[in-house]
Amino acid sequence: MAAENNINSSGSELSEKDKKFRDFALNGNLWKVIFYVCIPLSVFQLINHLFNILDTMMASHVSAIAVSAVAYLSQLQNMISAVGTGLAVGSSLKISEAYGAGDYDMVKKRLSTLITICGICSAVVLCMLPFTPMLLRVCGTPEDFINVGTKYFIITLFSTVLSFFNNVYIAIERSRGNSKRILRLNMFVIILKLSITAYFIYGLNADITMIAVASVISQAFLFVMAIHNLCSGNDAFTFSFKSIRFKKNVVNPMLNLSFPVIVEKVAFAMGKTVINSMSKNYGSVTVGALGISNNINGITTQMQNGFQDGGASIISQNRGAGNIKRALGTFWRLVIIEASLGLIMYIILNIFAGPITYLFANSQDGYNVEFQNMIIKVFRYDSLGGCVPLGINAAVMALLFGFGKTKLTLFCNFCRVFVFRIPILWALQNFTTLGSESVGIVMCLSNILTTILSCIVAFFVIRNIKKDYKEMI
Q1: pLDDT digit string, tens, across residues 204-237
Q2: Distance between alpha carbon 97 and the CA centroid of its chain, in Å?
Q3: Smallest Cα–Cα separation from 175: which of 90, 239, 264, 78?
Q4: What are residue 367's phi and psi, to 5 degrees?
Q5: How far apart are CA 265 and CA 183, in angstroms?
Q6: Closest CA to 3 of 321, 363, 391, 472
Q7: What pTM does this model have?
């Protein structure tokens, strides 16, 4: 207790609610802790993903080219937003670690400095706006996509800037165990977004540019709420200009953990952009079919990501408090939960694949049965390698993030795209006569191989953890 008082000599304290959650996370029944933190996050990820799927459906109402353009340009957006997402993931884990260790003064300093860094990154992104067409051509974007989607992409960049702050805010609330607040806020945001988009597309018969406008409006609402919640009060989890510190002990741990995550996410999005470019060999609509397949499969993987994010936070907090055995126990429970969830969703999605894909095969031009069959063909392979294997992989990622092994997450995900995905698709295109199903096969194989690799990595990491923290286990 004396050490904790010394750590917090500047007066940064926790609210009573945060104190209770910290005690619960460090000492409560571990199954209950995992479900309490992760279920709202999983539901949030699911709803957020469904909102992206409905976006795609509304884009498909415009035309098949429009939905393919949205699928393609979203990967370029992901490359840019990876900076904010990486900062949120890596930095929030260091905030969670300080929270678990009882260093509340450091919590406030890192939170305030992180938000300032996001502001700097946002200014850089806004400077890219005049160069959008050139940027799209440098990235190899097809001309028909540039013609359809340039305005869409420009407006999306504004949404990306807002999401920098929103992702950080969500990560901070996750560190505090405020999963239900995240869920409530995002429910409202999604309803708002879908209502506006539906009005634009079905009421006004607008193009895909208005989908991006709806995204900006909804992200702006969450941004306002984030600013309000982060600036209200004076506890450790509120922003303060006085607490901004660009010092090594504050910034370096966050950046060291975040940088590999940023590189990983940029490389992953870049790799998916390469895959989309290679998929054009089977026709432009194949890009749309792959994007839709990924979206349907993402119903499962996004829920699993909710458990990954929450689990990483729990592991990090317990690691900070020296509860290493409990941190490892969280990982093993996550493996069971993630694999079970993946199996259940694999069965459900494959049973209802026909009705689900039918929704995407309708546009203003009518029902396109060939497009639906292409989506189903790709999805069958995609889901086989995605649902269960990626669930296990998500549990391993939670372990690696929780123990600060972000360089290993970079290694695994780099291999996923640049070793297991792009070379295999190249081989299928050059040495087989397979058609558009090749993109589904490569998703299946790359995801399974990535999971095998991550399990091997987890084996050695756990062995080293038990060796390094022998006295704490």
Answers
A1: 877 777 878 888 898 899 999 999 888 887 788 8
A2: 21
A3: 90
A4: -80, 130
A5: 24
A6: 321
A7: 0.81
